[in-house]
Amino acid sequence: MKPKNIVLLGTTGSIxxxxxxxxxxxxxxxxxxxxxxxxxVDGMEQAIRQFKPLKVAMTNPSKAKELExxxxxxxxxxxxxxxxxxxxPEADIVLVAIVGTAGLEPALAAxxxxxxxxxxxxxxxxxxxxxxMGEAKKHGVKVLPVDSEHSAIFxxxxxxxxxxxxxxxxxxxxxxxxxxxxxxFAHITVAQALxxxxxxMGQKITIDSATLFNKxxxxxxxxxxxxxxxxxxxxxxxPQSVVHSMVEFLDGSILAQLSVPDMRYPIQYALxxxxxxxxxxxxxxxxxxxxxxxENPDPVKFPSLRLAREAGRAGGTMPAVFxxxxxxxxxxxxxxxxxxxxxxxxxxxxxxxxxxxAHPSLxxxxxxxxxxxxxxxxxx
Length: 380
What we know:
Helix content: 40-55%
Largest sheet: 7 strands, parallel
Oligomer: single chain
Low-confidence stretches: none
Number of helices: 16
Order of helices and strands: EHEHEHEHEHEHEHEHHHEEEHHHHHH
């Protein structure tokens, strides 16, 4: 297999660090030629010394200057720097692992430059799924999922047509509050919400797992990635996090993808697709796992799934509003300004106040995002 040249946007976050581990494990197959981060000069310096990329960037200009002084190479900065990396002639695939909206423009730039993209940033497909998938089709490039759930569905589908699918079944760990009574939700603390039972992730996504907003975002992502309307996308709680997701076909057959919970599996598959290659990751030991259990999510405790379905049905700018309002609400919860239950309330109030723009341009999407942030701040 010919080595793939990777541009890694979000080098020092949890996905970026896991991607570095994959690249270190498969140096003959995965070469990081470009890398970008926002703030972590130490993390970038270490990664640059290990992987020796051709080009690097920091979105924070002052951090770019600091890194430049340390590594004695030119460091691009700002959004322009991300776009420079995303369109590098040497790149075969751009892995977008930037939290928030900052990954959207470089992702579109990469697609328009004829690069495949691997998507770990939910916001790209939640906010602009119609546009991103349309551009990918137009330019003949692949959008490869990095989320474990979407990677699982991608692997289960393998060439099947949307018309053959009865439903996509996303699995959820259930987060830390799966068994906590609803009446105790008002007293949930930030520290409690940051204790995830299965995954070691960044702060925002860990809170999203506690509210199940992460599954809501993944429902909208799946709708666009696999060209399946959102009413055929379901969620089931699976506390062991071994079955990463499933596809039910029209004949009643269900295919599932399983592995121990480690993000290196889906990252590797995105980077080596369509090939499967051996690695040094731990095998899945079913005797040790001993049991796999499933249950329905509680719609009263977790209204996030209902709100996601409503956003997906409305389409247009509503998913961007759903995403932005949640970001604001989570930030305010982490800062101690609102309680856990107010995360749900803030998102619902913001959605209710929004007038949807159908088939929006990028400017309209970004305007809806900005409006939703202001509205969420107001109603929270």
